[in-house]
């Protein structure tokens, strides 16, 4: 049975979420709990919505949940840039996270495009 765990988009989103957990620990240590919590919520939402959409069974529903994932991805990107602008994380950490968000965005976007095309067929 091929489930959501076999999707490259889900796998890469999970990797991003793990990286965000590491950054959130740093943010908590320097007393930026609210930013850390929001970063975690947004990052967890990405693979969760990919999995939920996959489980819905129709390409149209799946595409909708991929849209939600893209929104959460934009939120993660914004929070990472904010943490960088506030000098709460190192530039190399910011660059690595933004590279991961770009990679996840490319894969999710491609999957979304594919599901939308399948929904029209």
Structure description:
- It is built from 4 helices and no strands.
- It has 121 residues and is mainly α.
- The chain has one domain (4-120): 23S rRNA-intervening sequence (de novo design (two linked rop proteins)).
- Helix 1 (8-29) runs antiparallel to helix 2, helix 2 packs antiparallel against helix 3 and helix 3 runs antiparallel to helix 4 (91-120).
- The radius of gyration is 15 Å and the shape is elongated.
- The mean pLDDT is 94.
Helical coverage, percent range: over 70%
Count of domain modules: 1
Terminal residue distance: 24 Å
Q: What is the overall silhouette? A: elongated
Number of DSSP helices? 4
**What is the fold-level CATH name, i.e. the topology?**
de novo design (two linked rop proteins)
Radius of gyration: 15 Å
CATH class: Mainly Alpha
Within CATH, the superfamily carries the name 23S rRNA-intervening sequence
Short description:
The protein has 121 residues and is mainly alpha-helical.
Name a few traits of the molecule.
121 residues, mainly alpha, de novo design (two linked rop proteins), 85% helix, elongated
């Amino acid at each position: 049975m091929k489930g959501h765990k076999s999707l490259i988009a889900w796998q890469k989103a999970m990797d991003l979420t793990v990286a965000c957990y590491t950054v959130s620990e740093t943010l908590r240590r320097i007393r930026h709990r609210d930013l850390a919590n929001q970063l975690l919520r947004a990052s967890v939402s990405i693979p969760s919505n990919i999995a939920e959409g996959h489980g819905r069974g129709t390409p149209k529903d799946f595409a909708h949940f991929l849209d939600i994932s893209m929104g959460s991805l934009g939120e993660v990107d914004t929070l990472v840039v904010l943490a960088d602008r506030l000098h709460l994380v190192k530039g190399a950490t910011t660059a690595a996270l933004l590279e991961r968000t770009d990679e996840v965005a490319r894969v999710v976007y491609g999957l979304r495009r594919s599901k939308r095309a399948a929904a029209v067929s």
